[in-house]
TrEMBL record:
InterPro entries: Flagellin, Flagellin_C, Flagellin_C_sub2. SUPFAM superfamilies: Phase 1 flagellin (SSF64518). GO terms for cellular component: bacterial-type flagellum. It holds the Pfam family Flagellin_C. It comes from the Bacteria. Residues 98-182 form the Flagellin C-terminal domain. Belongs to the bacterial flagellin family. GO terms for molecular function: structural molecule activity. This is Flagellin C-terminal helical region. Its main location: other. It is found in: Bacterial flagellum. Keywords: Bacterial flagellum, Cell projection, Cilium, Flagellum.
Amino acid sequence: MQQEVNSICNEITRIAYDTTYGGAQILNGANNGLINQEGNLRIHVGAQANCVVDIKLDIAFSMSALHAYIGGLTDGGYDSVNQAFDISSRENAEKVIAGIDDYIRYVDSKRAELGAVSNRFDSTLRNQDNIHENQSFSRSQIRDSDYAEETSRYIQNNTMTNASTQILVQANARPEIVAALLS
């Protein structure tokens, strides 16, 4: 059992160190250029330089960092040097179980925070889709309006040209009519 517990602890730490975004580790607590002055994880999410989202993560997601943050298992059951739980005795196993309950509560609160960030991402994406759709619709209406305006000008100019032609025909025909009447 102890070997399985150690293996699970090592796997949690491995996942924290292997989780990357944009090539940078985001869960191991290392300041890899993604942490801003306020201590928030800053993630770039868009095409423009100012499209960033700040996520407040208090600690790294390794077993030792979780243990240090939560402060659980202080009087036995957790070996922070080896990042393992000691369940060799009943007393230590009970402390480990109590500590795991604290870990679960903490992880649940972080999941809620990350869920809120995910909802912000979804909302931002929906908003960007709406903006794109509205811009496309506006461009289409402007093109339709420009086409209608140009068509109206064309018809107006064509009517003026036809009227001018008819006036010239009438003006040229009058001397012949007058000559025919006089003869």
